[in-house]
Write a structure and sequence with these properties.
Cofactor: Mg(2+)
GO molecular function: lyase activity; metal ion binding
Protein name: HpcH/HpaI aldolase/citrate lyase family protein
Structural class: alpha/beta
Distance between the termini: 11 Å
Number of helices: 12
Order of helices and strands: EHEHEHEHEHHEHHEHEHHEEH
Strand content: 5-15%
Radius of gyration: 20 Å
Keywords: Lyase, Magnesium, Metal-binding
Shape: globular
Largest sheet: 8 strands, parallel, barrel
Helix content: 40-55%
Length: about 300
């Protein structure tokens, strides 16, 4: 049995909308994050904490990762976001998404306060994970340090919306640059993924804003998957099925990976350094790739 935590889809849900949070709990998303940041108006942010706490405590999240996105540490709200939400619903929260992370010290700032909140509320110290969101040039410059900033980290997330604004890119659509000759976010996502994987973490792509363009979302997810990312945001339930499909191994590939793992294990027992499977040589590097696919496929119920 595998212990892989799937994060193929990360469903964004405004913490101010009780109906949407209820629907999110019933969705097929691997992770749901209840958002106190961009999807909540500034004058509604303090009031959004109580519906979030209510949903965290009363809805059934047992089949998925439950997280919430706090406001950035450069705002007036982040401190009370942590104290109030974790203080009242910390036992139900798996992760906290930290937006607009610029350096490892941002993670340390959040971690130091979070540890005190856990201690003061008899929660397991270190039990709540952190997911830094990379959204500007400074964060991208420091992404490798950020990825190694804390043992609490659960993933690295790329945020294309604010990153677009920070980089001065043209257009107003998040995640879409159809006229660009290639994958627009190839470098940024590759950088985030390399940093994440150097720390043994999954990397998650951000949103694709056009919810009425399923094929565009699929292409965006495929691009991220080909780079090695482990999942992608869904900003509408209609995107979940596509994301779960794209970021799960193809069944035929999973079956072949299982044959490789089994054959390689048998070869190792016989003292062989390599083995042929389906006419192709398999060595330790191939076996490692196959093991990763098998673990993900088992977690996704494909094997």
């Amino acid at each position: 049995m595998t212990d892989v935590t799937l994060r193929r889809t990360q469903l964004a849900t405004p913490a101010s909308d009780e109906k949407m949070m209820h629907s999110a709990a019933d969705s097929d998303a691997d992770e749901v994050f209840l958002d106190l940041e961009d999807s909540v108006a500034p004058n509604a942010k303090p009031d959004a904490r109580e519906p979030l706490i209510k949903a965290a405590r009363e809805e059934d999240w047992s089949d998925k990762v439950l997280s919430f996105r706090m406001n950035g540490i450069d705002t007036q709200w982040w401190y009370d976001d942590l104290i109030t939400v974790v203080g009242e619903a910390g036992e139900y929260i798996d992760d906290i998404i930290v937006p607009k992370v610029k350096s490892a010290s941002d993670i340390h700032t959040v971690e130091n306060l979070l540890e005190q909140i856990e201690e003061n509320n008899d929660l397991e110290v270190g039990g709540i994970g952190l997911e830094p969101q990379i959204e500007d040039g400074e964060g991208m410059h420091n992404v490798h340090d950020i990825a190694h900033a804390s043992d609490r980290l659960s993933s690295i997330i790329f945020g294309p919306g604010d990153y677009s604004a920070a980089m001065g890119t043209p257009g107003l659509d998040i995640g879409q640059f159809p006229e660009y000759p290639g994958h627009y976010w190839h470098h940024a996502l590759s950088e985030c993924n390399a940093a994440a994987k150097s720390a043994g973490l999954p990397c998650l792509d951000g949103p694709y804003a056009d919810i009425e363009d399923p094929e565009g979302f699929r292409e965006s997810a495929n691009n991220a998957n080909m780079i090695g990312c482990d999942g992608k945001w869904a900003i509408h339930p209609s995107q979940i099925e596509i994301g779960n499909e794209v970021f799960a191994p193809d069944p035929e590939v999973a079956e072949r990976a299982k044959r490789i793992v089994d054959a390689y294990a048998e070869a190792m027992e016989k003292g062989q350094g390599a083995v042929s499977v389906d006419g192709q040589m398999v060595d330790e590097a191939t076996n490692k790739m196959a093991q990763d696919i098998v673990e993900t496929a088992e977690a996704a119920g494909i094997l």
